[in-house]
Amino acid sequence: MKKTTVLLGAGAMIPFGGPSTKVITESLLGHKSCEYIYKVVQHGYEEECNFESLLSALELLLEWNRSNDSTRYLTYRDTNIYRNVFQLGIPFRYHTTNEIWKIYKQVVNNIIELIKDYDYYPQFTGSWHGKDPSILALFISKFQENSDLKIYTLNYDRLIPNLIGNHLDIYEGIEGESFGYNLKKFSNHHLTYFNLHGSIYIDYNPYTGIKLLGRPVELENAIKLAGGNPNEQKIFLPIIAGYYKSQRMMSQPFNFGLGAFMCDCDECETIIIVGYSFSDPHINSILSSFIKKSITQIIIVDFSSDMLLSIFMKNSINRVFKTNCDFEKVDEGVYHNTNNSITIFLKGFVDYIENYLNNVTR
After folding, report:
1. In 3D, which of 297, 301, 242, 293 has the Cα closest to residue 271?
2. I need a surface site. Which of 173, 203, 304, 347 has the fewest CB within 10 A?
3. For residue 104, pLDDT beyond 70
4. Residue 45 DSSP SS3
5. 130 vs 124, 134, 160, 162, 181, CA distance in Å?
6. Residue 71: what pLDDT?
7. Pairing of strands 191-195, 148-153
8. β-strand pairing of 297-301 with 148-153
């Protein structure tokens, strides 16, 4: 049976109630302390700030306060940011570890609450944004009849396992409550799912290790200190974000997920990329290195209100997949490259699902 790999970015879950990066960021800025630090940090960023920028800033402030030498762990860019922070007059209370730690916990807990709002329901009987998420479950059910289906998400929810776990045998690399770290088993399983950037269901215990819970992690347990590099305490989060993002991705269980994703990119006949902005350098590196452009069908699903392929998206695709393609419009909101190895569908994920279901049920 052929293998299909699916990568879900933030845009994939928006039709089903998932918050966009912008929504998460704006929800945090309702708190005066977060808003104040966020606005100051913006002066040191060339790119657009978001909630990850705020987490990075808070983690760097914690590191700044912990270190005897204020520049010990900071790059030139980081030092510029924090020169702005202090020179622009953040009140002294924001210089103290306890105050920053308090704000940091508040930020993480607010993100967890936002994800819980749409993710954790024993029974899905309602609809969000006018779309019942059962259409997503039906899509997965139909698709896996004809292909091994390897689903990876950059979101923090477990909406898909919550939807289909009682009906389909979906494997998340879990043995009991703990991660099994069996790449061969994960690769050979017909239907798999992994949160590459963590989820609100992951709990860390220094004595029993990392577990996947059947419920979202309790807020007071979401943030803990865990081992990092020698002589460096790394903050453990159930989600992969912030200044320590690279370190977190290389720690358990996330390194297992990255290894599996590399294998499935290398072996798949088709990859479907949904709602992904091509802005994550780690994910981009895997796509560039392991997708075999000559034999792998690449399908990119996104939403554009005018149904037009932007220069930014075209350039991002060509950069990541190391091509120099021109794309031809073949239908409203649908583009192909010259040899039809890359298809871009700009009508959104729900329209893509409905088109697929209409074709398989004819």
Report:
1. 297
2. 304
3. yes
4. coil
5. 14, 12, 18, 20, 39
6. 44
7. parallel
8. unpaired
